[in-house]
Design goal:
The chain has 104 residues and is mostly helical. The protein has a single domain, classed as Serine Threonine Protein Phosphatase 5, Tetratricopeptide repeat, CATH 1.25.40.10. Helices cover 75% and strands 0% of the residues. The chain has 6 helices and no strands. It is flat.
Length: 104
């Protein structure tokens, strides 16, 4: 279950579930992917941060705005962010999802 291809497949399935409006199931799967990535990779690894971002998106779709905002802030506040993420796609995605976060 810790193989990168398996985690990618789980993440992709969770994205599809979210698009289908199956928010609870999508959230559970994103939480599982994030848990494994935090164990296998480091918290600052781009894949871990993207998993956290995906979970935050699902939380926002579930109207769990406080938790979603906290998670988006965690992603953008990571050590990895300063050098790489702010200039990359993760920052664009996060900022577009959470415009009220005033992160830039």
């Amino acid at each position: 279950m810790e193989h990168p291809s398996t985690l990618t497949s789980m993440n992709n399935l969770a994205l599809v579930l979210n698009r289908q409006g199956k928010y609870e199931e999508a959230g559970q799967m994103h939480r599982e992917v994030l848990r494994i990535m935090q164990k296998v990779l480091e918290m600052e690894h781009p894949h871990t941060l993207m998993s956290m971002n995906n979970l935050a998106t699902v939380l926002g779709d579930q109207d769990k705005y406080e938790e979603a905002e906290w998670m988006h802030r965690e992603v953008l506040g990571s050590r990895y962010t300063d050098e790489h993420v702010r200039s990359g796609i993760l920052a664009v995605i996060t900022i577009s999802i959470c415009p009220s976060c005033n992160l830039l």
